[in-house]
Design a protein that fits this description.
Layout lengths: L1 H26 L9 E7 L3 E3 L2 E3 L3 E8 L3 H33 L3 H17 L4 H60 L4 H17 L15
Helix pairs in contact: 2-4, 3-4, 4-5
Amino acid sequence: MSNMLGIGISGLNAAQVALNTVGNNLANVDTQGYSRQTVVQVARIGQDNGRLTVGAGVDVVAVQRQYSEFLTNAVWNSSSSLQRASTFNDLTTTLNGALAGSGNLQGAMDDFYGAFSTVAGAPSDSATRQAMLGDASSMVAMFNTLASQFTGQQRQVNTQISNTVNSINDLTKNIASLNQQISQAGTSGASNSLLDQRDALVGQLAGDVGVSAVHETDGTL
């Protein structure tokens, strides 16, 4: 009778853990970055009772995340590639805008070199020389405008780099802290939430630098 009660209790305990896990999955259905969890059960080692081996019930050995290292790594690689392409697009758009907004540089240079040819054909003509000086002044002004715009863009890029480096430092610091907590939690259910938090941070980090999949056991990248 006692053995029967023990088996029944083990089944009830396992069912309770499974219900709690399902409830937690439902509660977090809209939680960003949450990974669905499942219960891993194993049969207890039975007892030899003469000619028969009698079962001893069930144990819950783990509550695991439904995690795919391949898919996670693919998402992070895609995020890194997308961010790289977006950054290049933003920089080239800004550069094209600066070139387009400063006037026709090629036309100014053509006018300047054309004025040289004209002066070479009539070096004593003061009007021709004056026109060449005007073309030279226009070209210099255009170069000065471009230099000012490029300097401004350089400051903007340097600021963006500084902000990105600070963001990377903050993310890696938080990831290191989570790795320590995951290591201390071991295989307990609390580590699943910590692993989800770490994946979310690594996903943000993937937008700034290339990353590889995280190892579930030791938390290394």
